[in-house]
Amino acid sequence: MQINTLKIKYFKKKRKTIGRGGKKGTYSGKGGKGQKGRSGVSINPLFEGGRSSLIDRLKKVRGFKSDKPKAVVFKFSDLEKKFKENDIINKESLAKTGLLDKKDIKRRVKILGGGDIKSKFKIGEGITLSASAKRSMGISADKAGAKARPARLGKK
């Protein structure tokens, strides 16, 4: 006689199977009591138990942030160091001189004024000028020898 060959003489009671629905199980997989434990439950997925929902909280966050990338800004004093007299300043020439990174070529380029300009530049297409830059270049008269054609970025 060995232990592994012994048979049990008494009947082993079967465990109660729960969670099958009907009268056999206790809660049938629905957890305890509460709204979700009842039949016919349908809760709005955006309902957060009475607190302000995410959508309502986002409405209260004031302000606006534009998705449009900001312009790459240059001063005339920086351009005078890199460019010679009567050079055309456009995005390609700015990239060649190392002032404009390759990743910034698709961004807008704006030139700021400030002080008097000693050199005469030609502004290429795709570059905008600030009001002070236009004044210092004398855009209306050809005193600075510059012909500026501001870029059209879209309809307004």
Describe this structure in words.
The relative contact order is 0.10. The chain has a domain at about 70-135: Ribosomal Protein L15, Chain: K, domain 2. The protein has about 160 residues and is an alpha/beta fold. Helix content is about 20%, strand content about 10%. The chain is built from 4 helices and 5 strands. It has a 3-stranded parallel β-sheet. It has a two-stranded parallel ribbon with strand order 2-4. The protein is elongated and about 110 Å long.
Secondary-structure blueprint:
Elements: H1 54-60, E1 72-75, H2 76-82, E2 88-89, H3 91-97, E3 109-112, E4 122-123, E5 127-129, H4 131-137
Parallel strand pairs: 1-3, 2-4, 3-5
Q: Based on Cα principal axes, name the global outline.
A: elongated
The helix/strand class is alpha/beta
Span between N and C termini?
99 Å
Strand order of the largest sheet: 1-3-5
- Described by its quaternary structure, the protein is single chain
Task: Briefly summarize what is shown.
This protein has 156 residues and is of the alpha/beta class.
For the structure shown, list the relevant keywords:
156 residues, 18% helix, single chain, Ribosomal Protein L15, Chain: K, domain 2, alpha/beta, three-stranded parallel sheet, 4 helices
